[in-house]
Amino acid sequence: MSVEGGTRQLEYEDQNHNHITLVSVDEGVEQVVVSCEGEVDTADYAGVIGKHAGHLPLWAFCTNSDKTRPGRAMKALLGEFDSSKARDVGLLHELSAAIRDQVGYVKGATHATTSAEEAMAAGTGVCQDHAHIFLGLARELDVPARYVSGYLMMNDRVDQEASHAWAEAHVEGLGWVGFDISNGISPDERYVRVATGRDYREAAPITGRTQGARDSGLEVRLSVEQQQQ
After folding, report:
1. Shared domain check, 18 and 54
2. N or C: which end of the chain has fewer CB within 10 A?
3. What total number of domains does the chain contain?
4. Domain that holds residue 27
5. How far is the CA of 4 from the CAs of 33, 34, 62, 132, in angstroms?
C-alpha cells in the first residue's frame, strides 16, 4: 500500500477483524492517491468461510442498523418463509433467490445512503442493497449475518468493476457462509474479501472525514490478472 498526498499515521485491527490504516491528508493537497497491489491466493470452498473470528460475539450480528432494519416491504417477503427452518442453509439460499427476484439489479438506481427497506420498496437496487436486504431479513430470523465488501473477478476482462458486495450468514455446523445475492451464487475462487461489518459503513474499503473542503469525489480503478498454479 502506498499513499500520495497523505501520511500514514496508525494501523490497527478493528472490532470486525479488519486491518485498518489511518491516513491524514497533507496540508494544501487537492488529491490523495491510495494504491494497493499484491498477490491473493483464492480457492473455491462453495462460500464456506468457517468458524467465527474477531472481537465481536455472534449475537452482535443479529442486531439491525438503520441500513438493514426491515420495514413493511421486507417483512412481507419474510412472511413467505418458515422461520423454524431459518438456520438451514437451504432456506438461506431460497431467501437470497427471492430477494434477487423481487429487487432487480439496476446500476445507479440507488446510492450509498439508500436503506434496505427503501430498495425493497422500490424493487430496484445494486449489490449493496441486495446484501443489506439479506442481512436485515436473516437477522429478523435470528441468524447472525454480516456485510462483505470485496472484488469479483470477471473472466472476460483485466479492468474490473470498482467493487462488489455480498453477505455472509452464520450456519450451525458450517460457520460463516457467503451469499452473493446479485449473482445468485456462493462466492468461489473469483472472489476477494476485503472487509466485513454489520453493514456497508463498517466494511467500506475507504472512508474519510473532511473539514473545510467545498466538494469532494472518489474515483476507483481495479485491475486483476489471473495466474494458474
Report:
1. no
2. C
3. 2
4. 1-37
5. 5, 7, 39, 33
